[in-house]
Write a structure and sequence with these properties.
By secondary structure, the protein is of the alpha+beta class. It folds into 2 domains: 109 residues, Beta-grasp domain (Ubiquitin-like (UB roll), Roll); 131 residues, Orthogonal Bundle (Fumarate Reductase Iron-sulfur Protein, Chain B, domain 2). The protein is built from 8 helices and 7 strands. The strands form 2 sheets. It has a 5-stranded mixed beta sheet with strand order 2-1-5-3-4. A two-stranded antiparallel ribbon has the order 6-7. The longest helix is centred in the C-terminal third of the chain and has 17 residues.
Length: 250
Amino acid sequence: MDLTLKIWRQKGPEQKGQIETYPISGIEGDMSFLEMIDVLNNNLVNEGKEPVAFDHDCREGICGMCSMYINGRAHGPVQGTTTCQLHMRSFKDGETIYIEPWKSAGFPVVKDLMVDRSAFDRVIQAGGYVSVNTSGNTIDANAIPIEKADADKAFDAATCIGCGACVASCKNGSAMLFVSAKVSQLALLPQGDVERKTRALNMVNQMDEEGFGNCTNTGACSVECPKEISLENIARMNREYLSASISSEK
């Protein structure tokens, strides 16, 4: 398979970036998208050129590191798929592929296709935790009865990998889907009840401080999310935040 790659190159956060063109050949359909970039980088190194910087880690679709726009879509053309799980058979021989980093004020570019997503870490630090009883009367989590419907919803929310596709896909650069998934994951479980009110307040406030935009219910976030996190979580987070706000005023 022969391809033409149009890749965003940017030396650093303060430098001006631009699209550069790279022809590549010998790509097999069973290669993942990241393996294809590995081939390109090997070619560039052999030519004495600087390889393309991009984030990656597990390459199993669970870490969220492989974040990039591919032909204008977060993680590429296959819905419910991370970039590392995207295979080159999804493209045609001779196709031109545009590859760009997330473009959001909340995710400044570090270099080339790498962006700084530490804002998500700070949102988690603000409230994404639970109290643990260490008095000697600790109850095993599996021994706490939880309704299956709630357990299923909590598990679905917990599948969020924090890749940032929701932010990158939103016209407002909103992080509501990510934050709501983390709030929902714990709000639906009895272990998360102790910090329930402060969690919603602190995480939403931190999200606002990081400069993410507000949600206008476009729905692009859920469509482009590789784990297909439901918009229901945003509604749940809004309820949690409103309830916590009213309680805190008393």
